[in-house]
UniProtKB/TrEMBL annotation:
Listed PANTHER family: PHOSPHOENOLPYRUVATE DIKINASE-RELATED, PYRUVATE, PHOSPHATE DIKINASE 1, CHLOROPLASTIC
Residue numbers annotated as active site: H468, C844
Gene, per the UniProt record: ppdK
Keywords, comma-separated and alphabetical: ATP-binding, Kinase, Magnesium, Metal-binding, Nucleotide-binding, Pyruvate, Transferase
Enzymatic class: transferase
Keyword Transit peptide: no
Listed name of the protein: Pyruvate, phosphate dikinase
Species for this entry: Flavimaribacter sediminis
Lineage: Bacteria, Pseudomonadati, Pseudomonadota, Alphaproteobacteria, Hyphomicrobiales
Amino acid sequence: MTKWVYTFGDGTAEGTADMRDLLGGKGANLAEMCNLGLPVPPGLTITTEACNWYLGNARAYPDELAEQVNTALAHIGKVAGRDFADAKRPLLLSVRSGARASMPGMMDTVLNLGLNDESVLALAEGVGDERFAYDSYRRFIQMYSDVVMGLDHEVFEEILEDEKARFGHELDTELTADEWKQVIARYKSVIEEELGQAFPQDPQQQLWGAIGAVFSSWTNARAVTYRQLHDIPSGWGTAVNVQAMVFGNLGDGSATGVAFTRNPSTGENTLYGEFLVNAQGEDVVAGIRTPQNITEAARIEAGSDKPSLEKLMPDAFSEFLGICNRLENHYKDMQDLEFTIENGKLWMLQTRAGKRTARAGLRIAVDLAEAGMITKQEAIGRIDPASLDQLLHPTIDPSVSRDVIGSGLPASPGAATGEIVFTPDEAVEKSEAGKKVILVRVETSPEDIHGMHAAQGIVTSRGGMTSHAAVVARGMGKPCVSGAGNIRVDIRRKLLLTESGPLKEGEIITVDGSSGQVLRGSVPMLHPELSGDFGRLMEWADGSRRMKVRTNAETPADANVARKFGAEGIGLCRTEHMFFEDDRIVAMREMILAGDEEGRRTALAQLLPMQRADFVELFEIMKGLPVTIRLLDPPLHEFLPKTDEEIAEVAEAMKVEEELLRQRLEALHEFNPMLGHRGCRLAVSYPEIAEMQARAIFEAAVEAGAKTGEHVVPEIMIPLVGMMTELEYVKKHIEKVANDIMEEAGQKIDYLIGTMIELPRAAIRADVIAEAAEFFSFGTNDLTQTTFGISRDDASSFLSTYQKKGIIERDPFISLDIAGVGQLIRMAAEKGRAGRPDIKLGICGEHGGDPTSIHFCEELALDYVSCSPFRVPIARLAAAQAALKGEDA
Ligand code: ADP
Ligand code: MG
Ligand code: MG
């Protein structure tokens, strides 16, 4: 018989932390906390397998499930001293979803399940507190109707606002039992009106309704989107946790809260959290009341006059502090905790590895390693390379004056500027139209995720550091200011109301998520310094890394940035990019459009000094590190004059009739330039182009070498080779130039000549090509295009459809198609080494900065990866992780 249900509570559990695949993260950690002897309300976890069964069998439950749940409930009842569906001593339950990975797209928790018109009386009598009982009942009706029955929660919020106004109250906590009864009566009738059915009174019906809703929520649109964004397989399913309720809303001796064992924004090793007295569940996160600080130190720092938990409930606080330390030591990581205090008694409701900013992640990993809790290798493995991107974000220049229009909490660091938008849909629309936007909301909810993704930054007028907006923004690495109490959002009139007047949709603001300020207009930004924890972890990573990391750069600015980020050379210098500037493009066009060799040589002579100066500068910056220069590659149409004005300009420079030039343009027209006269084909047709470039490179190497004293060994790369004979032909011309210059300069020049592998034929014939090539660089952009036969520039319109329809999982231009393109690379690497055992191998496509692709490169034992400057740190870390993984295997 399959075991679908695992119980926990009373100091033991059937599950453990490492059973998260089956029990989900929440269930596995609840079990683990029980095993550690921590105070956890008893409960049961229905497995993810049951979810998959349910979804795969037309939403029917497995046969044995009901019985297993009932047996487990009886056990929970015994531990809790009450019974489910017993109207006299009712056991009330929370029903909570919990997948393997924490997923905000899933069903919200239902609390107080089991209450009905009868048991609410027993609950009131049991604790002698009628207000509490009806407060719990109304919460239950509201959550259940929203989450399980699909009635929008706003309906209930409106009624509640209305009644509060009628009774003259401001806070929910001020309502009396009788007033809650009236609210409940209105809730019930609106349910009947809207749904045509009464609110279910039968606890069994309530329970199975909730369980089914959790399972079904695995396939709701929000969850599906979230999974796509985070690469979570749809086959995982979610577990359901059914747990005895404990009550944080039992008056002033009760509370509920959330905490991080370290600061999730900075990583500082201080307990960090918020709580509310006399509250339940998500009140803290929802921003209904402003929460209080847990520690006295945090209260003082925040300048809050509301007492801390430390002062208010010292016993529960010190027990909680002990548990925090215990859990951190046990899991060896910063934990995110949820707890409730019922009449002074502390209950733990959740623990998990806390979400954190990249900065905090680094600091925590480094601190834990230095404290000896984890090894340096483990610290390296803790950081998601992609998250480093956040640290490379700009911050506001501290020397400029700030026009502050609002301030709130520094919820997620970094700064961003953009136009104000008030709805997630507008955020998406405008950003698709190429605009940068800041999403301004009262508060955010999981329905807003797409808008948060599209926005550069987020501002909310309500909510704390653990509000939805704050948590999600930190996860996304977007600047966020939450709870900016001195601004108001008027959605209807699309206005942001500030103390210094209203701002309209479309006006520019800047969010400073590090200080919690919202500024008018745009502000100068600074680029980050990469020292401290970042530097330390990178040092450790470099110590574990085997592959070198180079950068793709052709401008001095890019080369400098890349050096600062630790690049160990240039893996790809695209020479054509050097010809786009004003004075150069005309000479370039002259060269392309020249009718004969002489015309080309005249134009090339103009380009030579510019090209040489560029290389000298690059060589100087790279101080003897390897620099791979690719000869002219592009489809020439990219350079051809298009407008009448451009044509006239070139005609004049070439001293030819415009008409003649137009004829020449016509003759150069290609139907498929990407597969046309480009790459080494240009050098085969017009060797003088390759000769000019080679001359510029060698002369620059001599000049830069003399200037810096560092020996420069240029690596000349011939693009788009499919046949060894092409390579040999071009190579001969380059060697001739090298010999000429050695003679002229009277000194020996060291250099390498190699090729890109970017055509399937080159991969197939790699052994033969290697005889003429001293290095291969895998040009995976073109190799992906030519292997798939998909033009990258035209792919976006149909590749996204492919992804939606599940035909491909990932865009092969972003993450290397290991099964296809990867196999060509593997073959080329093997054959290349067969043809020339000491051949140098690297990768220089976009994939050189993609962690998954980097792992594959390590598997093939490539010598280096090369990526854009801002991805260099990411590649350094990913290469270290890949090397460490190789050691494990
Ligand atoms: P989420 O995954 O959104 O955090 P949870 O299942 O953790 O959802 O539930 C949210 C909140 O509901 C918890 O933080 C806690 O305050 C409250 N809650 C959940 N289970 C219980 C329970 N057994 N007793 C009291 N409150 C609970
Ligand atoms: Mg939730
Ligand atoms: Mg939770």
